[in-house]
Amino acid sequence: MQIEIKHGDGSSRTGCFATTRGVVNTPVFMPVGTQGTVKAMSPDELREIGARIILCNTYHLHLRPGHETISQVGGLHKFINWSGPILTDSGGFQVFSLAALRKIREDGVEFRSHIDGSLQFLGPEKAMEIQCEIGSDIAMAFDECTPYPAEREYAVKSLELTTRWARQCRDYLDMKRERYGNHMLDLFGIVQGGMYKDLRKRSLEELVNIGFDGYAAGGLSVGESKEEMYDIIGTVGKMMPADQPRYLMGVGDLRDVLIAVENGFDMFDCVMPTRNARNGTLFTSTGRISIKRTEYKADPSPLDPDCSCYTCRNYSKAFLRHMFLSKEILSMRLNTMHNLHFYLSFFEKMRVAIAENRFTSFKKKWEGIFEQDI
Amino acid sequence: MQIEIKHGDGSSRTGCFATTRGVVNTPVFMPVGTQGTVKAMSPDELREIGARIILCNTYHLHLRPGHETISQVGGLHKFINWSGPILTDSGGFQVFSLAALRKIREDGVEFRSHIDGSLQFLGPEKAMEIQCEIGSDIAMAFDECTPYPAEREYAVKSLELTTRWARQCRDYLDMKRERYGNHMLDLFGIVQGGMYKDLRKRSLEELVNIGFDGYAAGGLSVGESKEEMYDIIGTVGKMMPADQPRYLMGVGDLRDVLIAVENGFDMFDCVMPTRNARNGTLFTSTGRISIKRTEYKADPSPLDPDCSCYTCRNYSKAFLRHMFLSKEILSMRLNTMHNLHFYLSFFEKMRVAIAENRFTSFKKKWEGIFEQDI
Fold first, then answer.
1. Could you confirm whether B186 is annotated as catalytic?
2. Structural contact between residues B207 and B163, judged by C-beta atoms closer than 8 angstroms
């Protein structure tokens, strides 16, 4: 996979990459559809607000309904009624953050399901098999997400294991490709190394030696300070091959996104807009607001007069507050629609700003707005 | 208000009535939007599946967000983004079924809110004031919903109170009409009388003497046997004025609907299709099914091959089962969409069957299907 860079502005860049299911413009935000649905949204609504690629979780889909089931009913795209590209994570992050009693072995991780406590196993080959069988467009290599904080010694061992697993993922797919021909998914490698810049560099070099279709930074937004995160983002982004997509995993606070785009990253995913929406925290062009506040009780104005989403076209703050306090499903729908529309529009505006050589002022303007936040 | 009967088939009848916000074809099913939203649905989706009139609850909207708030932001239709007719119940039924510590007085009922325990009051004038202020199209008179079982003596007193309150509702609206002119909502009277046929007759006669725009049967589906319910439905329906709408409140099991339409009723509301949807019980052309059953785990077929709803056009039973087990919001959306579409289509087919003089065979066919139910 190649990324076609149309324009660079400093280290930030805008371009596109192609999948068999459509072209994706970058920088891109991928809404998160953990269990095969972006919470509260229909696929039609996602398309309408400009989502072009979504993320699904291998770990969750493997546990329920199981990849065999998805394969039997015609693959993930048909199952969830989404015809655009799907990126699937490898399950590595979830195994380390959700599963109980995990036991790391050389060939993978044994763990207990967070749903029913059953004994499960994921490893590089299994993660590849699952992602192939469900029909992912972009698969992620199986990695160990280095926890924070981690001693240097642990971080070294962890990155070495991640490199060995990455090699096995690549080999598995190459073997499959040889056997079944060309029409295979793209595979991204995940850079680990904790908060050690030299280890991050080493991890990336080892992955580049193996050769992937894109490169991702993992193990961030796991408890470290903003300074540490920005330090790694600033180191890793610009070192990644310039002609391939660069993906910053799980980082979605827009302040962090601005820093990451400034440092050359192209792809992002995060549950923040959807989770915040369900909690009543809404993004607007003048900062975040909490919709439950008493001041909105009889406020007839839309959430954001500058917004063209379904929610803002049709509803008042008073209604959104009433729906939220009444715990209605429509509250989660309208809030999610708005927040995702906000994110996708933000990325669209960011692409234009980069193309027009004014990313620096764009970043400054939004940093000012985010400072006003609740 | 007059109902224009286009065709009768036995005592069943199909026709239409007009409101300032649109014509409604009967027999009609009104989806229930308790707190200002039909749970899990958007107004656009409701229109798309053929809903033409919805019901909202005076009791709930009075407690939250308050009718003053709704009035301040431009009325109920604008607030909830529904431009079609809205029927509002009077709150009588909810006061008797939801509120704690209710105390019936001659001028109304004092009760404690089920939300925060605060002391509240509803009576005929207050119920009218609320329904006027929020801009209801069809208001219901404030009644005492006679509980089941009720001694004859209690039922008599209760119906007498309901008649006195109905008179006060009528007077309140007549006074308003005189003062502000013609553009007022329609008002329906509610027949009580428990399971005593002669009391039901007396209640209806007293209401007809006062004069309403339509008549409703209340106090049914409150714990009585099907035989008792059918006995009252068979007595009351045909006695109601033939040139005005006849509304059977809160009865929505389609077996009961068939009996009621056979006995001349025109209007229905019920939470059954929406509540069942959220619980995973789905209506199909061959009977109800529970979507969580293991047999659907890898079933690629739609819920109902004869159904043209969004859910059946786009999703497999396997996906619907996965969404339900995963407790996803999309599960409630897709299930509700399907069940409401089923109900609204059922009513459409029933209207055609009556118009084509084949209601008897229509009823027989569906009674056979409902016998297959889970």
1. no
2. yes
**Residues counted in chain B:** 374
Q: List, for residues A165-221, the tens digit of each pLDDT value.
A: 999 999 999 999 888 776 679 999 999 999 999 999 999 999 999 999 999 999 999
Annotation says B171 is catalytic? no
CATH number of B14-270: 3.20.20.105
What are B117-145's pLDDT values in tens digits?
999 999 999 999 999 999 999 999 999 99
**Cβ of residue A83 closer than 8 Å to a chain B Cβ:** no
Domain ranges across chain B: 14-270, 277-369
Distance to chain A for B139, nearest Cα, Å = 22
B333 vs A333: CB contact, 8 Å cut-off? yes
pLDDT of residue A36 exceeding 70: yes
Q: What angle do CA A284, A250, A310 make, to 5 degrees?
A: 30
**Structural tokens at position A37:** 């649905």
Query: Which H or E run contains B3?
Result: strand B3-9
Q: Which of A81, A83, A316, A338 should we substitute to test contact with B (largest number of B Cβ atoms within 10 Å)?
A: A81
pLDDT at B10 over 80: yes
List of chain A residues whose C-beta atoms are within 8 Å of the C-beta of residue B47:
none
What value of ipTM does the predicted structure carry? Answer: 0.97
Q: Locate A72 and state its tokens.
A: 């039997």
Contact B68, B133 (CB under 8 A): yes
Q: DSSP 3-state assignment of B28? A: strand
CATH numeric code, A3-270: 3.20.20.105
CA distance A65 to chain B (A): 6
Closest residue, chain A, to B329 (C-alpha): A40
